[in-house]
Amino acid sequence: MAHHPGTASVAMTFMKRFAVIFLIFLFFPGWQSSQAALDSPFARDSGLSFSRQPEISLLHALESLSEQQLDQAQGLIEQLVRETPDFRLAHLVYADILAARAGKLEDLGAGFVPEAKLVGLEDEIRRRWHHHVLQPDRERTPSNLVRIGENQPYVLVVDLDLSRMYVFANNAHPLRLVEDFYVSGGKRGPVKYREGDQRTPVGVYFIQGHIPGRNLPHYFGWGAFPLDYPNAWDRKQGRTGSGIWLHGNPTGVFSRPPQASDGCVTMHNEDLENIAPLLKEGRIPVVLARSVEWVDPEDLQRFNAEMSLRLEQWRRDWESRDTQAYLRHYSRDFRSGSGGDQDYAAWVKHKQRVIAGKKEIRVRLHNLSILRYPEEQGLVLAVFDQDYWSDNFQSKSLKHQYWRQEKDGQWRIVYEGTF
After folding, report:
1. In a 3-state reduction of DSSP, which class is residue 173?
2. What is the percentage of the chain residues whose pLDDT exceeds 90?
3. Whether residues 31 and 78 fall in one domain
4. Which residue among 19, 23, 35, 317 has the highest number of C-beta atoms inside a 10 angstrom radius?
5. 329 phi and psi, to 5 degrees?
6. Which pairing describes strands 245-248 and 265-267: parallel, antiparallel, or unpaired?
């Protein structure tokens, strides 16, 4: 596109105002591949994301600005605000382009956006662009997803630093990335420790149902999917609070700044509505991580084989009624019960008494999931359906086990509970 007189200087003025973004453009390794990232998004075109195309249009406009193509950037932004009038970030960019062309761009936000809101909008631009620049190899998988059970058709992984949620389908090996979405987290970032700290938890959680938007204040938008925070590990660490949900944005809001909620994960209402049918099937794990590490699926296969072997040996030792062999799988820091209120010594006495009273024990495990715990080095959550049979007692239960690699290099169970 031809440049009109003054276009280059106006674009340069604008670029200086968006210094954080354009430092990424100019100096971040691999920025030259950004156009390919926009044209061929990491996630396949699933048709689930309503917000994807507006985001790509915004990023194309920013790239045009970086190339001093102000006319092209303005055309893209004008079309975007017409088609997506509730996208506040697009309006900010549009206002600044017009102010720059008029020679009145004295500050980001054309001088009329309050500083507190401006910081959030700058952060939103940075994280959206960072996500596209830093897209991992399509053949890689989040390191947390070691194994996903057959009864868990989908799994969500949230990268809080990138404000991104990834949806994986459990119908292929490796797991198939279905879609990714921009999301917002807690006002004070990760990690949650106590009630009211406005932080988003970091850990592995499970969706506990669905609350329609008609039953909630408009703040929650289309609806909400409550998570099981605080889980057993949170309670063991003394973390408090409740009401951590995946929910929509307030009615009429396209997107919120990256850190805008009281600890929940929020997203565009139509995006949430589109993936809702996926979240209502089975027990859906939600991994909330400060930063997601992407690894070769073969690495996960090897680790899965190691952990599966440990679980199998635990199962066999329990069936053998060799109490000492069985107890060797448990840490001295072990706790049990729904609140982790039974310590190791009390639990050992209980198990010795129970096992001594059995003539035969059979244990079968189904729907095994193995997930590396974010923010906790050497901690793994194993989740499975357990069928237990003995000569005087039978039960079926959902079991959660937390395995930790201890100082001697051995993996042992530090928490176990049935649900």
Report:
1. coil
2. 67
3. yes
4. 317
5. -80, -5
6. parallel
